[in-house]
């Protein structure tokens, strides 16, 4: 007996088509979809991207973000599977506002979203942005040997038309202001890693008109963010947006590395992750207040944060909500509900 076919519309980039979604050479985080593919296969489903020949026989279609309006090929596949398609809101409104347009929602049988304002338990179901099971740093670096703080992030800016369409605020500009502050006032305690900090940010009108700022703390891109983060007491984590419920990999990268996150993002973060596992930037009036707080944290207080993080990660609920096998189980349930 042959397995049933499940098709997936991958992320909005050509490299993810032709089954590129299952190739970690394109992105190490794609391990999530390799695990998903293996899990579905064990339960009688073969997962392929929508442009593979087998996709014409698909019993269900998984859509990872609504295609942009000009991606006519992807729209063709979606309308061909209009009665058995499932949408996952992978990107927040500031990145893909088309995900959240009401006119598009009737196309899908079910929508999985991280946005807590949309979840109704019926059409809209809760979805936790999945993390890989890899990257955990087991070797503990002593408190005294860790540098104070780092940020590992790309220097990006929002595409203005998308910002006008989105209902949530962007945090790219806030990220740049925080980097500028620590670069100026804590150059010996702060290091900056990531792509794009040595050139104008994409879509940034300001950078292109008046020039971009160079940073003395910039250390270039890093091949292994977990090893980098493990050398610092704190990792500054800013989401792309403050959309409620949206929590990508940044905080969990710090958790895996044994670095305490300094977080700004989802407005309801304290309802998602225990408050004693991170430092909330909203608790501080200024960046100066935040820096002073970080400098004052002693080893005992710091180790308490790390203990709380380990306890949170060990919980079965955390593993099922936030990591790859929990995501695979959720997708299987969604596919079975469609394939009836």
Automatic annotation (TrEMBL):
Keywords tagged on the record: Glycosyltransferase, Transferase
One GO CC annotation: membrane
Highest taxon, organism lineage: Bacteria
UniProt domain Fucosyltransferase C-terminal: residue ranges: 189-307
Glycosyltransferase in keyword set: yes
Family: Belongs to the glycosyltransferase 10 family.
Protein name: Fucosyltransferase C-terminal domain-containing protein
Organism, scientific name: Candidatus Daviesbacteria bacterium GW2011_GWB1_41_5
């Amino acid at each position: 007996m042959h397995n049933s076919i499940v098709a997936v519309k991958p992320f909005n980039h050509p490299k993810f088509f032709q089954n590129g979604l299952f190739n970690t050479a394109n992105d190490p985080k794609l391990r999530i979809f390799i695990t998903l593919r293996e899990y579905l296969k064990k339960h009688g489903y073969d997962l392929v991207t929508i442009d593979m020949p087998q996709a014409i026989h698909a019993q269900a279609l998984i859509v990872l973000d609504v295609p942009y309006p000009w991606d006519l090929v992807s729209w063709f596949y979606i309308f061909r599977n209009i009665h058995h398609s499932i949408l996952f809101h992978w990107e927040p409104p500031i990145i893909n506002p088309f995900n959240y347009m009401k006119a598009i929602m009737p196309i899908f049988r079910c929508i999985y979203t991280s946005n807590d304002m949309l979840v109704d338990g019926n059409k809209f179901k809760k979805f936790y942005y999945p993390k890989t099971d890899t990257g955990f740093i087991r070797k503990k670096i002593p408190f005294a040997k860790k540098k104070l703080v780092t940020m590992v992030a790309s220097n990006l800016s929002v595409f203005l038309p998308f910002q006008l369409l989105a209902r949530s605020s962007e945090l790219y500009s806030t990220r740049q202001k925080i980097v500028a502050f620590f670069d100026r006032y804590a150059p010996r305690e702060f290091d900056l890693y990531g792509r794009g900090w040595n050139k104008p940010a994409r879509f940034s009108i300001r950078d292109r008109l008046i020039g971009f700022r160079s940073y003395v703390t910039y250390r270039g891109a890093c091949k292994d963010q977990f090893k980098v983060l493990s050398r610092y007491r704190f990792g500054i984590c800013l989401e792309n947006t403050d959309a409620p419920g949206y929590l990508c990999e940044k905080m969990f990268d710090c958790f895996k590395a044994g670095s305490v996150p300094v977080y700004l993002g989802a407005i309801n973060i304290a309802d998602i992750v225990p408050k004693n596992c991170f430092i909330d930037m909203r608790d501080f009036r200024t960046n100066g207040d935040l820096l002073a707080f970080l400098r004052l944290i002693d080893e005992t207080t710091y180790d308490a944060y790390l203990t709380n993080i380990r306890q949170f990660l060990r919980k079965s609920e955390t593993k099922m909500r936030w990591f790859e096998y929990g995501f695979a189980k959720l997708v299987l349930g969604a596919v079975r509900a469609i394939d009836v």
